């Protein structure tokens, strides 16, 4: 008897305020208007995707003391947007990024449970952490949390949220329609941890999924361990088949320590794509997209983050700076800090020398995500290869256009995955847990 083929999981990422989106393309629309969110979500649902994914930004990034140009479009609050999308979609999962460092568990748990009710079981929470004081300046406590403690707080945050979600018995609503409540079915929560102390009753009945799906995006050792203990989905950035297999094996093996099975955690890397009628046409399209994403100004800005100094006098189409990085505080605020800028600069310099790359060409080379480039048939085959080869359970697709960048993929690639028998033709269930083939709670 042959082994059944693994099913591919797909999600849609609404492009964030960064150089992912090609702003100069006349088809590029607003990052704020609800119509943009609605278009991408409806396209993803038409393609029978698992979920729609929104990132978060709690402060506009700065470069050399100025707000970074690519941040000025703003960053709407995820749960508000997703509550609106719940009313115009029927099956698509709705994933919000909510920070576990600058929020409180009771309020986040209440908002997510509400979204799960409004959407009839389609809510998900991408748990992220922040340790930098720059972001913390927007909050009362500032940058109070040491970097080493951020996952401890996040783990406690998730544990407490789950206690709140589980505190109502499934049949607490006697009539099943929210009219009559059995008071004895509502439990009290008494939680005392290192970061949180809560004593009281939760205000929202148990939601259709039991609990929202948990997503985690960290790639450090602490992040992998946190995902193995708490997450249903991990959002990774591994771009090659070999790296994907190594990450997949490492994270899945950690699950046993928490009494979990491999299917209980889905690994879904971020991925971009470029399609063409021929392989050559797709390659040309991909190269042009990358040139538009990394213009001269953006190339210099990326290099300044590593070099830690003003290099605006250098030609982006010329060689790398002949000076070493400045290892003081640097020039960028609001981005994930680069742990060893000297080592990164050395790697970049070696790569530029080996391939004879200009500054702009180098940045294009080193900032690319996992990309599927080719005809619809070759892209479908490559996605299937990753999933069947245990390098991923699926992908979170990041289109380069807002909001229509997913249209071609849904129209041209999804039908081929369906023909291969590795992607659903219709939704089999109603909740996001159903779509992800996760165990019921």
UniProtKB/TrEMBL annotation:
<keyword id="KW-0560">Oxidoreductase</keyword>
<keyword id="KW-0288">FMN</keyword>
<protein>
    <submittedName>
        <fullName>Nitrilotriacetate monooxygenase component A</fullName>
    </submittedName>
</protein>
<dbReference type="InterPro" id="IPR011251">
    <property type="entry name" value="Luciferase-like_dom"/>
</dbReference>
<comment type="similarity">
    <text>Belongs to the NtaA/SnaA/DszA monooxygenase family.</text>
</comment>
<feature type="binding site">
    <location>
        <position position="97"/>
    </location>
    <ligand>
        <name>FMN</name>
    </ligand>
</feature>
<dbReference type="Pfam" id="PF00296">
    <property type="entry name" value="Bac_luciferase"/>
</dbReference>
<keyword id="KW-0285">Flavoprotein</keyword>
<keyword id="KW-0503">Monooxygenase</keyword>
<dbReference type="InterPro" id="IPR051260">
    <property type="entry name" value="Diverse_substr_monoxygenases"/>
</dbReference>
<feature type="domain" description="Luciferase-like">
    <location>
        <begin position="28"/>
        <end position="388"/>
    </location>
</feature>
<feature type="binding site">
    <location>
        <position position="220"/>
    </location>
    <ligand>
        <name>FMN</name>
    </ligand>
</feature>
<dbReference type="GO" id="GO:0004497">
    <property type="term" value="F:monooxygenase activity"/>
</dbReference>
<dbReference type="InterPro" id="IPR016215">
    <property type="entry name" value="NTA_MOA"/>
</dbReference>
<dbReference type="GO" id="GO:0016705">
    <property type="term" value="F:oxidoreductase activity, acting on paired donors, with incorporation or reduction of molecular oxygen"/>
</dbReference>
<dbReference type="InterPro" id="IPR036661">
    <property type="entry name" value="Luciferase-like_sf"/>
</dbReference>
<feature type="binding site">
    <location>
        <position position="151"/>
    </location>
    <ligand>
        <name>FMN</name>
    </ligand>
</feature>
